[in-house]
What we know:
The protein has 13 helices and 14 strands. The chain has helices spanning 3-18, 25-32, 46-51, 62-66, 85-91, 107-118, 127-130, 145-155, 183-197, 203-216, 224-233, 277-284, 341-357, and strands at 35-36, 73-76, 80-83, 134-136, 142-144, 159-165, 168-173, 201-202, 236-241, 244-249, 264-266, 306-310, 313-323, 326-333. Residues 136-143 and 363-370 have low confidence and may be disordered. This is YcaQ family DNA glycosylase.
Amino acid sequence: MTTSTALRRLRAQARLSTLHAPTGLAEALHRLGFVQADPIRAPARAQDLILRHRVRGYRAGDLERRFTRLGLEEDFLYAYGVMPPETRQWLHPRPDPAGSAHLPAGLAREVLDFVRGHGLTHPRDLEARFGRDRAVNGWGGFSKATTRALESLHHYGLLRVARRQNGIRLYEAALPVAAPGEVRERAHRLVMLVARILAPVPLVSLRGALALMARRNPGLGPLSPVVVAALRSGELERGEIEGETYLWPAAETGWRHRTVPRDVRLLAPFDPLVWDRRRFEHLWGWAYRFEAYTPPSRRRFGYYALPMLWGDAVIGWANISVTGGGMQVTPDYVQDRPRSRDFHRALEAELARMERFLAIRAGAPGEGGA
């Protein structure tokens, strides 16, 4: 197999492994196992932009509206996001860094007792009882001490996010994880889940994602040996191309029987297809960057550029905004814009899907051309 053929095969595998035929929301979340979340809305939150390709008739905000009914959870896998209960059960219990069971003390203990007695709790519900003292947060800034306590209790599985209200997490006491598995079994399941979400994933990138997970969950123990064991057992397969080693679960074979659609998809910056920037540059030959936190004068792609997938190639990006009741689209391309009629029709179809997703009336004032 030539290098170009191998790369085309990897690109097809990358797309087909994650962009399945749309299903219902519950089924899509079960299949994915995890959806990364981000609060920026440009033109919608990342979790909604990810799910719109995978859920029939999906509209921005459907995940938040159906979160409670579906019994979903928020937690940290290799990033923060939304997951079905079966994923969360492998993340807990999380021990303290020293390896012992977490026992909250001081303010955290008082906040936990408050939530257990009060029920569904908005962070502002704690102000009357505990005041507005501030503490240093994880980014070096300041947050309310009670908010920090809520986040810590959630991290250790003592509280759960029951739902959100205008984007703000509402908490309730969490039930103990039913019959948690042995550490080795939990670690194995989580490694295989991450490998499946990002498949085919460079070995270097998988190790990086697992390091992020292990930093938040050191009780899982070393994860590199879990990868080695999965390769030896045949649960993970590997392939090498241009000095890069790729891994994927051997059981994930459904993509082999599908053909890559000739459509256009505008992807969230955190979509599994483009999440790993190392793989992105290797497969598509250019470096994409998320620039929301980059000073405007130094941006190349824009505040919230959505990678543009055409078939199995990512050929450019687009920035989308909603102004005056219409959708403004600013596309750009790595090379020249494809001139084929098929591409033009596919792009128009994707923009129409985006309008429906955002609940924008087609052709409303302010709509930009592409």
